[in-house]
Amino acid sequence: MAVILTNTSVSPGIFKMTVEFTGDVKPGQFFMLRAWDKDPLLSRPISVHDYTPGKLTFLYQVVGKGTEILARLQTGDDVTIQGPYGNGFPKITEDLCVVGGGIGTAPLYYLVRNYKAENPTGKCRVYLGFRDTPYGVEAFEALADEVVLDVGGIITHKLSVTPDETVVTCGPEIMMESVAKTVSAENTVYVSLEAHMACGIGACLGCTCETKSGNKKVCKDGPVFLREEVFYV
Amino acid sequence: MAVILTNTSVSPGIFKMTVEFTGDVKPGQFFMLRAWDKDPLLSRPISVHDYTPGKLTFLYQVVGKGTEILARLQTGDDVTIQGPYGNGFPKITEDLCVVGGGIGTAPLYYLVRNYKAENPTGKCRVYLGFRDTPYGVEAFEALADEVVLDVGGIITHKLSVTPDETVVTCGPEIMMESVAKTVSAENTVYVSLEAHMACGIGACLGCTCETKSGNKKVCKDGPVFLREEVFYV
Amino acid sequence: MSKCLETKFNDILFKNPVIPASGTFGFGREYEAFYDLAKLGGLCSKGLTLEPKPGNKGMRLWETPAGLMNSIGLENPGIDAFIKTEWPHLKAIDTVTVINVGGKDEESYLTAIEKLNAIDAQLIELNISCPNVKAGGMAYGMKAETAGDITKKVVDISRHPIMVKLSPNGDSIADIALACEAAGAQGISLINTLQGMAIDYKKKKVVFDNLYAGLSGPAVKPIALRMTHQVCQTVKIPVMAMGGISDWQDALEFIMAGATCIQIGTINFNNPMAPIEIIEGLEAYCINEGLANIGEVRGIV
Amino acid sequence: MSKCLETKFNDILFKNPVIPASGTFGFGREYEAFYDLAKLGGLCSKGLTLEPKPGNKGMRLWETPAGLMNSIGLENPGIDAFIKTEWPHLKAIDTVTVINVGGKDEESYLTAIEKLNAIDAQLIELNISCPNVKAGGMAYGMKAETAGDITKKVVDISRHPIMVKLSPNGDSIADIALACEAAGAQGISLINTLQGMAIDYKKKKVVFDNLYAGLSGPAVKPIALRMTHQVCQTVKIPVMAMGGISDWQDALEFIMAGATCIQIGTINFNNPMAPIEIIEGLEAYCINEGLANIGEVRGIV
Ligand SMILES: Cc1cc2nc3c(=O)[nH]c(=O)nc-3n(C[C@H](O)[C@H](O)[C@H](O)COP(=O)(O)OP(=O)(O)OC[C@H]3O[C@@H](n4cnc5c(N)ncnc54)[C@H](O)[C@@H]3O)c2cc1C
Ligand SMILES: Cc1cc2nc3c(=O)[nH]c(=O)nc-3n(C[C@H](O)[C@H](O)[C@H](O)COP(=O)(O)OP(=O)(O)OC[C@H]3O[C@@H](n4cnc5c(N)ncnc54)[C@H](O)[C@@H]3O)c2cc1C
Ligand SMILES: Cc1cc2nc3c(=O)[nH]c(=O)nc-3n(C[C@H](O)[C@H](O)[C@H](O)COP(=O)(O)O)c2cc1C
Ligand SMILES: Cc1cc2nc3c(=O)[nH]c(=O)nc-3n(C[C@H](O)[C@H](O)[C@H](O)COP(=O)(O)O)c2cc1C
Ligand code: FES
Ligand code: FES
Where are chain C's structural domains? Predict the structure, then answer.
């Protein structure tokens, strides 16, 4: 159980929720959220959008029953959160190029903020693609060295990566696949996958994805994978 | 859909909810309430506790999942109400003696208030029995000619009915049966029954009770019945 | 209303494929307060038996997670009273009335069917699947052989087309459907309720006098959808499917699984407007998808 | 902890009758972060097969009203790897480990069982009811005859007691249980998942590559409770029951229906503490009701 500090709409259909939480939380990790009993049955995996001790933030899109219920919660309400789960992004010391699409930008903010804190001299460029109304762009602009925004187009058309950048992408699968295929094989590319989840902790084997080294669990071995493991580029 | 004007606890586990509603509402009728989707599945039958045009009041006890959800609703929230359903109490012109037990007192308040409005010279006596903490007693005292209160005992032990009183009882079945058996056969006695309900409108045949004249539907033919019909006294 | 939902079930024309299910809609009267019944594709009567039946004693309803258990036990006024007091009203409604018939033995089925020959009904739903009456009903529906047998006898004497309503509690439902088809059934409907049990732990007693009872509602939808698909893959006669349908998306899934029409049961209790919302939802779907008729997506999975 | 929950399943002593169900608990490790596994009556391994299995491709999970459909397809490391990497860890936990074994044909069942003879397991759960693998599994569990056959062969060569896990999708479950008992099974567990179907109407496609999948969770509880009651009324060997149990009240109802132990499946995903809360709830119940042992209410309905 966590107490909700704020939960407000930041764009049509997009909500930002901050809850009380203290513990170790890495960028790229996620929590299983619920604020209901048996309808729906399962908890919902939501990435960490930002974290400072005491304050854990999620950015989420309302797409169905679970996220609709989350969106109706108010300051002071309780929400059950389990986590943090998942491997999270590895420590990045090279320059960083992140490519986010839609709500896939959610986990990238904490990544960038954390990267900048750990690599004060590192360079970080951000590509953000949205189908219609963009959100969260200024937050990235306040942190990153460069932000390229695309609305309604295909973000990978604008993408150009330098040899000393590590690339991290999160968004629609088709976008991540395109990033994985476009970026030179010399660069390290991480993708953050999604899968329907029941347990979130590696017990049900429901979130399996095929990789070069056999089945992996998105919830436990991921959600962050090296491009080579999952996209046969 | 109705908008909640107030919804507050009036005693441990007992809530009073007032919603916006205008229409014809008779004492003894009930509404089917819901403020959830599929968990629980069915709506909950709740009697009219009081009504003036624009303001419909329920008095309910929290006993399970449905009433728990109702109890959490707040001013301004929506609640789905269907009704009014059921026959309600018939027009009473004799003196009135009501015998209520626990939350069974809920529909009796509107009955007494209405009786007094329609029969300014009629006499109305009220017996109220509670297992532990009583509630709503002053409201009855403000209306009735006499209020007999019993806590922790058996209300029918105190009951004595005059020949010119019509008796109305609502409460635990064992109490209603005892009233039905105690009161002289000369008096008219009405009981207000409960049954698990699905539709509330007479379509599912789930709320049937056996009567002298065959099966009756508590939701449509009742919930108010003549004692002779249902208790074989 | 456009014609995009018009559906033929053999040669019976339904203005849309949405029909409230037997036992959840009385004889329709109660729902007239909510909407004009002529908007429905059809409606299905409460299960009728030859003789009036008082139904089961004791608790009749019990809620379960996303489901409802019932043990009504076919309470009904009997065929004669139905023909006298309900049929004139039903007949006058501009929609298809499906007449659901149950029985306790061969004779009671056949006599009931004969009596119905006297009225101009369009479709009879032969209920061989009610789990809530001890003698008869589901007994016929558990095995292909007995289901085929009773179907043949009924078809032989009925002047109305017979749609057999199958039980999900017996042997392979596709086998049973096939036997009914071979016996001359002109349609299949499914599923009736799943046999379940409830215990009141506080009272240390079973809830229903009849021990087991029938489970319906959203909880059973995945099972009903699987069975619908199995039957639609197996028989050529049209199928009227039901089981947990609560919105137009559910209805559409059953149509995609091959159902010609769909019935709406338990959700009527939760939302009396459900059938109308489902009709409107399917219509909007056709328009948005550019379908001239909903039939274009029937059986596409 | 008091002894009011101690339960004997034949001569195996469980400190309480609560056991997480196969496939919902991995090999236990993941839940060690939530509580000490020694608090459990026992735990049940993921379904093991002779050879490692990658499981099914495509979507594996789909939520339904109060239910969950899964199509994992028995992904597991195989018996050898299990014995090597998981068993030492499991063995060290002070609780009963039930080993769940699936197979694709007689030979694979028998070889798997032989390999397990090498370890000191206490109870084997013979899975003849997985609806998610094409060859084998449920095929054996649909009919009394085949279920009895494979049970007999397995019992003959196993040095461990065999509890057969039954499918709710086949012929009369009581008949199947009886056949397994006659074949020498020392226990029955039930139910495995109910076969269901999901369609993604937006994609106009079935959700699962394997067409149908297994339904579990609170939605199925009334059906599981009925089947548990039917089987407990029929066989003399002990029954380990499951299907939709989500709290101690549910668990108690299964015990009242006659189950000796109960397994906790899908609800682990919804509430990882569920097994512990159920144990505590049952214990409080015994105290409040003045029961020296939970067995006093077993089978009382
Ligand atoms: C590791 C991970 C991190 C995520 N982080 C975020 C985030 O930060 N912000 C955000 O808005 N969304 C995020 N998602 C997606 C989010 O989990 C789904 O949008 C959400 O579960 C939808 O639930 P619903 O009830 O609103 O929708 P419904 O469509 O009604 O859900 C039905 C079922 O499908 C599952 N489901 C539906 N969409 C997805 C999806 N895209 N991924 C996984 N399961 C899905 C649900 O969990 C549920 O079991 C993440 C998903 C994963 C796997
Ligand atoms: C005509 C009528 C009028 C009523 N008026 C009032 C009222 O004014 N105030 C009040 O507090 N209660 C009233 N009740 C009882 C009220 O309906 C139940 O307390 C309520 O349904 C319990 O729901 P739950 O989800 O909280 O409990 P749960 O026990 O979780 O409910 C489980 C199921 O049992 C049904 N159920 C449980 N108890 C009863 C009951 N006593 N009567 C009928 N169904 C029940 C529920 O509707 C539900 O379907 C009335 C009942 C009827 C039939
Ligand atoms: C209260 C109730 C009464 C029912 N009575 C009948 C009946 O008389 N005849 C019949 O064939 N089916 C009857 N059924 C079964 C429904 O017609 C339907 O097959 C079943 O409920 C599954 O659909 P659903 O999940 O949409 O409710 C009844 C169901 C309910 C809930
Ligand atoms: C994700 C998942 C995986 C399962 N895997 C197995 C398995 O490997 N072997 C088995 O016998 N049963 C398996 N089952 C079935 C459960 O053990 C149990 O029989 C079923 O889920 C019903 O119980 P429940 O409703 O409490 O979940 C699995 C169930 C789920 C949900
Ligand atoms: S969600 Fe259960 S293993 Fe990943
Ligand atoms: S509740 Fe359906 S008939 Fe009364």
Answer: 7-55+72-193+218-297
